[in-house]
Amino acid sequence: MFIADLHIHSRYSRATSPACEPVQLEYWARRKGLHLIASGDFTHAAYREELRQKLEPAEEGLYRLKAEHRIEHSGVKEEPEPPRFIISSEISSIYKDKGRVRKIHNVILMPSIEAAEMLSQRLEALGCNLKADGRPIIGLSSHDLLELTLEVCDKAIFIPAHIWTPHFSLFGAYSGYDKIEECFEDLTPYIHALETGLSSDPQMNLRLAALQDYALVSNSDAHSPANLAREANLFACELSYPAIAKALATKGSKEFVGTIEFFPEEGKYHWDGHRSCKYSCTPSVAIAQGNICPVCGGKLILGVSHRVEELADYPEDYLSPQMRPYEKLVPLAETIASCAGMTTASKKVTALYERMLRELGPEFYILREAPLDDIARISSPIIAEGISRLREGRVTLAPGYDGAYGKVTLFTPEERDELTGQTSIFGNFGFAEPEKPNITTPHTTIASAKQLPEQVKSTGYPYNLNQEQWQAVSSDAKEIAVLAGPGTGKTRTLIYRIIHLLDSGVAPDKITAVTFTNKAAGELQERLLAHYKNKKMLKRMRIGTFHSLALRTLRENGANITIIDEYAAQTLADEALKEQNINMSAKTFLRELSRQKNGAESELSPQLIECYQQKLAAYQAADFDDILLNALTLATDDPNYGKGTHLLVDEFQDINELQLRLIEAWAKRADSLFIIGDPDQSIYGFRGSKADCFEIFLQKHPQAQTIGLTENYRSTAEILNCAQAFLSDGHSPKLHTSRTLNLPVRLKDTDGPLAEGIYIAEEIDRLVGGIDMVKAHNNKRSRRGDQTHSLSDIAVLYRTHKQAEQIAYCLDTAGIPYTISGREDFLEDDQVHLCLSFFRTLIDKEDAISRLICNKALGEVRLQELQDQFALRTKKEKAAALISSWIDSNFLGENQAMEKLLHTAVLCPKISDLLANVASGKEADIVRSGSKEYVPEAVSLMTLHGAKGLEYPIVFVAGLKEGVLPFHIQGLTADEDEEKRLFFVGMTRAKDELILVSRPEQSSFLRLIPEEMLVKEAAEHRMPKAKQLSLFE
Nearest-CA neighbor of 104 among 144, 133, 157? Predict the structure, then answer.
């Protein structure tokens, strides 16, 4: 028989001892009497390398410490056989599933370091940050993590960790599930073992009928070597990985013998209570009190006993026939201290502990098997009596609660005095008396934790629209202008306008819907597909951005055109400028040319423009403005163009002069024109949009019906009132809302970019309820019973891309996953342009300008080599795999811009998606992960412009500094009214909570918000340090 501890941590995990490394872990395993210990933290690359250096293969799938690293003497009688290591790691998954934030920890055992590395690499490829913490936090669901693990290694052992811990576990009261199948779904059969945790024992677990056939394992989850083997497992099989896996997977296996347990009352979450109030109680008492703390009136933190009671199928005294034997023990040092009336830190306790190991043997032998006479001879009769009582379970317990460990008492003061003949000056051995609840009631049956969702209130209008929305959707007017402020259901109204037209008999190919971004077009298509479940119908409709629809129209009419991106345009512009001998940058020329093509006056040389346009024609290429101009010419010249169509235009306030002319041409023969938008969100003046666009439209179309949407369904009253007070002279109707959460808009003052980033990272950590266990039970928000959020519920907005760098650094340091949206500077890098041009040549064989760029940079021979290498892979492989391979093939591993391009590629399924987003996508269309892997649960970082059209439960608006917002630098000052509208857009992205973060030289815009609408707070300026909790805190 051997004893195994299968869940521990290294020094790379938060709140762990620096001594958690292989040498010290092996040394303490011998002192404890363990034969097998987990390595811990294989996902951390530095620790994985340390394991490679210090361990060597032993039995199949196991390792041992190399002899040269081993501490020769462990201080134990008859030096035991060196223990073995099994490769392990714990991973924290934080994600949203079935309408709730889930925080689940899982332990993974691997048969080799190589298999562990393969899984780690796959996780990193998905954007998971494995560097910040030995127990990494990822956005993958437990189901997807299990699936990925089995793909990498089908011999892996996957064990849900400490399954009852309130904040981070499978059955946790605050973020877990009620059934295993809800979590792992179709992969549930691959779960064979469950870790019970310190606050429960097998008997408690087996009150659930669903757990009868699982191997219930117990481990220490040690954060220091001295805490190894607080709980452990007994095996009677061969000491090898396959034998252990078989013992755990085989129902009723005799080879998995049983467990060595904490007293569950000793665990940190056994009872319900409030540690800050020093109040604890049984589940029945908590229920009688409505789960409210009688001291502070807040919600109690519900413990494991409460949660077991909720889910149990059998009564408290039920003894399952499936239950394996288990023993309850207290570590030897604590046992000595309790008997002696001292603390574990006492020199006398330490000396006696060392003597007992030296004279008797390892801890487990002393606690479980050593003759009591030998114990009395080496130590004292009271310690022998204490160990006797421990073996028999004759102890007094003060249950743990709300993160505070429980207390075990072996003797009353009177008993100890009688046995020792002296009175201890330490009172009750340092243990408090059990809390006596203020209220006692008979046992009460706990109501189901499940609650029915609120019924949607019927509005009395079709599609459950409100009166204003239905008026817009059902209007028979030929021209309709809808002024829709933020959160008023603009997208919903637009979608149901299309649905209403289709349901009224309009053919799908007569529907044209113009959006401002690729993302918005995608959302329209997805929601229409969800409604009709008819892909053929959807394909017949024309839904897309101005440029995508214009290009589609031109190609349908025989045009063979390649759209060139900004870099290709600069290449041709440089050639034209040199030929015309004009001293001007390509960027300046293209900017001025675009303004001219969009209707503005320009002083550019006609000869220069003609030279550039001739170069475009030579390559059968067009820039983005030419696409719209050519489509405008086609629509103007064709007398039947658009006849009988229904044209719908989203985000009308963002269009420029050329786009307005195109709308007029497309709508001239249409059966209806439906425009929708919000002048108060007109933020693209630098592209030619105008806040008075609706007024201009109505002057041209005086017969148009105007409808205002005024009911805001997104933001709380606190947020909406603050935003509208700031923009008091808006163009749209005043909004109102019935939502309120009594969460004021907060203003945090910081003393600079670093302090701002630190505050944001700390606050995000608090808002999600703590991203690690130490913070979770210290979290004031969760103690108030407030809702916690997932990482994807949170957005951080800023004025310029430069501001993202410090914020991203602080999130990286805190181990918080994130994505960044927008056109960042890395897209200007020559190597990035070359890479994208190369893949365009593979996607579009007619793209002569991209081939020209590649030929100039690579040469014909090298270009052909690369095309041969990648040609067949572009249709089969994901974008990220292709970009990663390009980086390796061209030795670009040190190029930071290429690394960011790779991080962008992980969020694009195909290389064509990446190329389209970079070429024509707006701010919101270009998103990169904070790491190499796809992270479904991540904080969103983006500019205020990029946030347009999006919404999040929690929004930070950062960097509110004069010169940043409103924006002005030497020689360039943005339009102040537009800057106000931009700030308004940012504030109204928030649904539940808005946090404004300022710096010295605070933005003058903040003075426009009435003081009574803001709660001002000073931010702390330090990174949080994790604190290890002692057993006796």
Answer: 144
